[in-house]
Amino acid sequence: MYEEFLTGDKLYGDDFTNDEIRVWFEHEAEAYANLSKNRPVEDVNTSNYGYHILNNLHGYRHIKLKENSVALGIGAAYGAEFIPIANKLKEIHILEPSDQLISKKLGDIPLHYEKPDISGKLIYPNDHFDIITCFGTLHHIPNVSYVISEMARVLKPGGYILIREPIISMGDWSTDRKGLTKYERGIPLPIFRKLIKQFGLITVKESPCFTMIFFFQKLFKKNLYDKKWYMIFDAFLSKMLLFNYTYHARNKLQRLAPSNVFYVLKK
């Protein structure tokens, strides 16, 4: 059943019926929060958020955001990912399924939460947001194509979408995988490229990342996500090894490639 999706030519879940989406959605709503229950709220809700250097390197430094911008975070939880650009924002809206991963405000900026609709439909009007972030969320969603089309719809002309997602299968999701939720799977890079073009978005920057990240963390015996020198090294290594990319690795050689991509897109 799953083998046809491991080629990377077709995205599992993208053509699900409403009933199939509902089953997926109900399971995933709290699944990630439950995986990270042992992490203190303070570690996520402050500048200790672990991806600031990565987000700046591959994302924020490539955009020009005007004052008093309006932002949307897809699956942005406490909103910590907006800290580097908070001085440019007047409103932050967050689409978050979990009741555990919410906060009242980010600094002086109130956080406005909405629950995602299982259809993927966004409640916001056309051309509404100056910036949309979606970091590590789409691979938890079945109908990825429709959600990206909705993100494009609610983005203002000239606005930006920042996406960071796994582009590998993350293993065979027909069986239980340690540290992963039941349904999450990466989004094949060719499908990402196709959807970006299909919905009229411009690729400002496509940055492969996270090549052999777990190997290097074990080697150095430390977390490397918050080390600028390592993120720069990883960016170089990922670019060099992109030629070896395959969606579902079946041997160690095929694992010598980036596992994620970071997109800066513009409308």
Entry summary:
With about 270 residues, this protein is of the alpha/beta class. It has helices at about 20-30, 30-35, 40-45, 50-60, 145-155, 190-200, 215-220, 230-240; strands at about 70-75, 90-95, 105, 110-115, 130-135, 155-165, 200-210, 260-265.
Question: What topology does this entry show?
Answer:
Blueprint: H1 18-28, H2 31-35, H3 41-45, H4 52-58, E1 69-74, E2 89-95, E3 105-106, E4 109-114, E5 129-135, H5 144-154, E6 155-166, H6 189-198, E7 202-211, H7 213-220, H8 228-240, E8 258-266
Parallel strand pairs: 1-2, 1-5, 2-4, 5-6
Antiparallel strand pairs: 3-4, 6-8, 7-8
Please count the helical segments. Answer: 8
Please trace the helix and strand order, writing H or E for each element: HHHHEEEEEHEHEHHE
- What CATH calls the topology is Rossmann fold
- Radius of gyration, Cα only, in angstroms? 18 Å
Global mean pLDDT: 88
Largest sheet: 8 strands, mixed
Tell me how many strands there are.
8
Descriptive notes:
The protein is globular. The chain has helices at residues 18-28, 31-35, 41-45, 52-58, 144-154, 189-198, 213-220, 228-240, and strands at residues 69-74, 89-95, 105-106, 109-114, 129-135, 155-166, 202-211, 258-266. Strands 3-4-2-1-5-6-8-7 form an 8-stranded mixed beta sheet. The relative contact order is 0.17. It contains 8 helices and 8 strands. It has a single domain, classed as Vaccinia Virus protein VP39 (Rossmann fold, 3-Layer(aba) Sandwich), CATH 3.40.50. Mean pLDDT is 88; it is low at 37-47. It has 267 residues and is of the alpha/beta class.
